[in-house]
Design brief:
Layout: H1 27-34, E1 43-47, H2 54-65, E2 68-71, E3 87-91, H3 101-114, E4 117-122, H4 134-141, E5 144-147, H5 153-166, H6 173-182, H7 187-204, H8 210-222
Parallel strand pairs: 1-4, 1-5, 2-3, 3-4
Helix pairs in contact: 1-2, 5-7, 6-8, 7-8
Length: 225
């Protein structure tokens, strides 16, 4: 019988502060978010690729500060109320509609005037955000930036494990180790590989073993990722 990883697989995405795994790749970001009371000018831009843990760190900040979390794509409604909490997170600012720029501009100024804190997240730096409102663009570009680096082997293993947990998957131990040794070292690749394994295992009614992992990694290479 194939050896299986033995864990208590959660029934939801684990985003509690104690679930966050710190390694060399994200230690600086974790330390900066945790030191939220001392952010320069009361704001911080958290930058990292998809799957790097930005949303998880936002929830760490929420736990520490009581912050309200809003997705930038939801800020297009002109009737949206001002921030309700003393601190605010706006996630994925690249998705901010132009109709929401005025709201974010006033929220920024309100938090600054009241001593609140603003955490914004994105995959790219503020200088690359497509913000049409000049006053908001200048304020975002003046925000201190902290980046989550590419995953080291320790973090890659933790992210891979979490992706399996979030999907309620229990891979063969040898398949897990095979993936760690052979997959591309990026957060995007982890998300893609686990999603493909989930779909393949369900469609073919197969366990996640080395042969299936090999098929998925071969497909990854064929797709040029």
């Amino acid at each position: 019988m194939a050896q299986q990883l033995s864990f208590d697989w959660p029934t939801r995405v684990a985003l509690e502060p104690d679930d966050f795994f710190v390694s060399d790749a994200n230690a600086a970001a974790y330390a900066m978010v945790s030191d939220w009371e001392n952010w320069p000018d009361g704001k911080l831009a958290l930058i990292g690729p998809q799957g790097s843990g930005k949303s998880h760190l936002a929830r760490v900040f929420q736990h520490l500060s009581g912050a309200q979390i809003i997705a930038a794509r939801d800020l297009g409604d002109a009737t949206l109320a001002p921030p309700e909490a003393p601190c605010l997170v706006v996630e994925d600012v690249e998705t901010l509609p132009h109709a929401g720029e005025e709201w974010l501009f006033h929220a920024h100024n309100h938090l600054r005037a009241t001593g609140g804190r603003l955490l914004v997240s994105a995959a790219s730096a503020p200088t690359r955000w497509n913000i049409a409102l000049p006053d908001l663009a200048s304020r975002m570009q003046g925000t201190s930036v902290i980046r989550i680096g590419d995953p080291d082997d320790t973090l890659l293993g933790a992210v891979l494990m979490k992706q399996f947990q979030d999907r309620q998957l229990s891979p063969d131990l040898r398949a897990f180790n095979y993936l760690l040794r052979n997959m591309p070292r990026s957060f995007e690749a982890v998300a893609w590989v686990v999603a493909e394994l989930d779909h393949a295992a369900m469609a073919e009614q197969r366990s996640i073993t080395v042969p299936l992992a090999r098929v998925v990694l071969d497909k990854l290479g064929a797709d040029g990722r």
